Amino acid sequence: MTTMAVQRTSCIEWSVASRALPGEASSGDLHLVTPARAGVLVAVVDGLGHGVEATAAAQIAVNLLHEHAGESVIALAQHCHRGLRETRGVVMTLMTIEPDESRVMTLGIGNVETMLFRANPRVQPQRLGVLLRGGVVGYQLPALHASVWPISVDDVVVFATDGLREDFGDGVNPADSVVQVVDRVMAQKFRGTDDGLVLACKYLGRP
Questions:
Q1: 119 burial type by CB count under 10 A (0-12 exposed, 13-18 middle, 19+ buried)
Q2: CA-CA distance, 110 to 101, in Å (whole number)?
Q3: pLDDT in tens, 49-79
Q4: In 3-state terms, what secondary structure has residue 77?
Q5: Residue 154's pLDDT is what?
Q6: Residue of 30, 90, 101 lying closest to 66 (CA atoms)
Q7: 95 touches 42 (CB < 8 A)
Q8: If we measure between CA atoms, which residue out of 21, 17, 70 comes closest to residue 49?
Q9: What's this model's pTM, rounded to 2 decimal places?
Q10: CA count, 13 A, side-chain hemisphere, 14
Q11: Phi, psi for residue 172 in degrees, rounded to 5
Q12: Average pLDDT, the chain
């Protein structure tokens, strides 16, 4: 397992943990955290299947997302769809965190589960899950509609690919560090039947 130390970029701090399918040299589950026009773009991309071809498809998607990071999540998905037609395709969840508006914009295609956990126990609901639309980027794109959520200081967002169990959010505590979150989720929820990646970011407010 590989865990990244705490990273900080403008309005968030974040960490990621990943594991390849046992027996594989590389993982097809990749991530991107990069400055965007309105704040920060956070993306998790899962190349279909596993092995070299999955990694290659995911890397193309990450490169395209980085190149167009200042655009909307819908435009980003469209760029990736066009660029991945000759690959096996990917699924992905994209999020832009916009501190000036205290909001996030999200788009999920496929099965990269993503949840926001509220730091303030008086705010309900305590969890929000990104709406995932069926499809494969590069093969069959669904109708694209972004969701908008408010976000507050110390709220935590966790992304998990399908190499993690669906109940990965049960052990998430927003009071923990992002490294503690990803280490615990990976240790407790990794299936061992596919590549797995979990990324956690904590909102710090306006820089």
A1: middle
A2: 27
A3: 888 999 999 999 999 999 999 999 999 999 9
A4: helix
A5: 97
A6: 30
A7: yes
A8: 21
A9: 0.95
A10: 23
A11: -90, 125
A12: 94
Residues in the chain: 207
Instruction: Give the Cα separation of 44 and 108 in Å (integer).
Output: 10
- Amino acid identity of residue 194, one-letter, is D
Q: How far apart are CA 111 and CA 166, in angstroms?
A: 10
Residue bearing tokens 């096996």: 88
Model confidence over 25-44: pLDDT tens digits? 789 999 999 999 889 999 99
- Determine the average pLDDT of the residues in 98-105: 96
**Is 69:103 a contact under the CB 8 Å cutoff?**
no
Render 10-60 in DSSP notation, one character per residue.
TTEEEEEEEEPPTT-SS-SEEEEEEEETTEEEEEEEEESSSSHHHHHHHHH
Q: For residue 106, what pLDDT is reported?
A: 97
What the chain holds in terms of domains, given with CATH numbers, is 2-201 (3.60.40.10)
Joined together, the tokens standing for residue 156 give 């935590």
**Residue with token string 């991107």:** 32
3 state SS of 85: coil
Widest CA span of the chain, in angstroms? Answer: 48
Residue 129 CA to residue 131 CA, distance in Å, equals: 6
- Burial of residue 77, with CB atoms counted within 10 A of its CB: 0-12 exposed, 13-18 middle, 19 or more buried: buried
Average pLDDT over residues 99-127: 96
Amino acid at 124: Q
**In angstroms, what is the C-alpha Rg of the chain?**
16
